[in-house]
Amino acid sequence: MTYVPPDRDDQALDQTQRLDIASPGLPAIGNGVDNMSAQPVDPFAGRPAVTVGYAEAAPPARDRVVFQFVWEAILLLLTLNALFLVYQRREEILGGAVTFDAVEGQLAALTPLLLLATGFALTLRLGAVNLAVPAMPGLVIALPELFVGDNPLVGLAYTAGAAAVLAVLFTILTVVLRIPAWLAGVASLVVIAGSFAALGKLSGAVGADGAGTWTDPGALWLFLGAAALSIAGGLLGLVPAVRDRFSRVKGAADGTGDREGGSVAVLLGGTFLALLLGALAGFLPAVFALETGVAGMFQASPDALVLGPQVLIVVFLAGTSPWGRRGGVFGTVLAAVAVWSLSLVWASLDERFMEWTGAVYAGLLLLGLFVSFGLDRLGRPKEYADVESDTAEMSPYDNDGTGLFEPTLPDATTAAR
Question: Are 153 and 279 in contact, with CB atoms under 8 Å apart?
Answer without folding.
Answer: no
